[in-house]
Design brief:
The structure is a single chain. The chain is an alpha/beta fold. It has 12 helices and 14 strands. The protein has helices spanning 5-21, 56-70, 75-91, 93-104, 109-122, 160-173, 187-203, 219-227, 240-247, 271-283, 300-312, 321-330; strands at residues 27-29, 45-47, 52-53, 132-136, 139-143, 150-155, 177-182, 211-214, 233-237, 252-256, 262-265, 295-298, 331-334, 337-340. The strands form 5 sheets. Strands 3-8-7-6-9-10 form a 6-stranded parallel β-sheet, sandwiched between helices. α3 (75-91) packs across α7 (187-203), α5 runs parallel beside α6 and α6 (160-173) packs parallel to α7 (187-203).
Length: 352
């Protein structure tokens, strides 16, 4: 069943009224949900509206209305939408970075600012929609890119603001609409970023609810988004389990799971630059990026030189009892196997 925009608005207003009548605020606050750590409270409240709905079905129904309106939106309007989305993202880059660190407890504010700015400035927009024509004996052919339609997007706890910015700009530029299911431990910053972008879209003359999401994302709502019949493709960023689940749905999938990329250094390398770049890459946002260096393979001939170059860039080599002490903090043992201590994932070295 498809709902009109007026019916959706009336339904949302009724939900809000019912919640308020029950004595609740109908809002989300970081730290208030059992899915997020109680000691990471940012005091940011997210209310229903501007793309946030109580259920997945309501979010998809609103996306269907927006999809129909996007089909009638001119390319010039879409250009203006993307322009204002970029400007809005840059304006709130620091705020979103602080919200992400406060809510998730992962990474560093200054590095998340950099990621948000990068996503705002470098994500491809409508300029990539280039028409191609060619002629031959059988006539003339015009090739133009067409939108997929409604895309379901699962976003991570590690890069919440930047992922919402990147996905929204690229997908909307291509004429699509998006139904998000953020990671529950990053729902406030993710939903807030999405609402900011929705407001920018409307201010630029675009439709309402081009970006939608459920107010209380969970594993259940993630499955609902991935399997919803009105959602034609999936874009998933997260752990191996959610990527595997998305790949098994049977839809078009663009997925990025966990990565543990090694860095290989041999005698042909610029050792001074390698040492500097490895330390910078591995320490950026406290190594929560799956693209960051996780381990190093280095030939004997230049091993000492590489270690010296890394030490010049604030790396510290741990030996003997120092290493044992750190391993007791960052690892936990269970049934004879060692696992990362989640309390220290993404934390500053000074805290560890």
């Amino acid at each position: 069943m498809q709902l009109t925009e007026q019916e959706i608005k009336a339904l949302v207003e009724k939900v809000v009224a019912d919640v308020q009548k029950a004595g609740a605020s109908g809002a989300l606050t970081a730290g208030a949900s059992p899915t997020s750590d109680s000691h990471h409270s940012i005091g940011k409240t997210i209310s229903l509206g501007d793309g946030v709905f109580a259920t997945v079905d309501e979010a998809v129904a609103a996306a269907q209305v927006a999809e129909a309106k996007m089909a009638e939106t001119t390319l010039l309007t879409r250009k203006n939408m993307i322009k204002l989305m970029r400007e809005t993202s840059l304006m709130h880059a620091e705020e979103l970075a602080k919200l992400a660190v406060d809510e998730t407890g992962l990474g560093r504010v200054e590095d998340k600012v950099g990621k948000n700015v990068l996503a705002a400035e470098k994500t491809p927009g409508v300029e990539d929609l280039v028409s191609t024509t060619y002629t031959g004996d059988d006539g003339l052919t015009l090739v133009e890119a067409a939108p997929i339609g409604i895309i379901g997007s699962i976003t991570p706890v590690t890069n919440p603001g930047a992922t919402i910015i990147n996905n929204s700009i690229s997908m909307v530029a291509a004429g699509n609409v998006v139904v998000y299911n953020p990671h529950p431990s990053a729902k406030v910053v993710s939903l807030y970023a999405m609402q900011l972008l929705n407001k920018a879209i409307v201010a630029a003359g675009g439709p309402a609810n081009v970006l939608t999401a459920v107010a209380e994302p969970s594993l259940e709502t993630s499955n609902q988004v991935m399997t919803h019949p009105s959602i034609r493709a999936l874009v998933v960023t997260g752990g191996g389990a959610v990527v595997k689940a998305a790949m098994g749905v049977g839809k078009k999938v663009i997925a990025a799971g966990p990565g543990n990329p090694p860095c290989v250094v041999d005698e042909t390398a610029d050792i001074a630059k390698a040492g500097k770049d490895i330390v910078f890459g591995a320490s950026f946002d406290n190594n929560v990026l799956c693209t960051a260096e996780k381990e190093i393979f280095v030939v004997d001939k230049v091993a000492n030189g590489l270690k010296a170059a890394m030490a010049k860039n604030n790396a510290m080599e741990l030996k003997g009892f120092q290493l044992e002490k750190v391993l007791k903090v960052v690892l936990t043992e269970k049934n004879g196997r060692f696992y990362p201590n989640r309390e220290f994932i993404g934390k500053d070295a000074s805290i560890i």
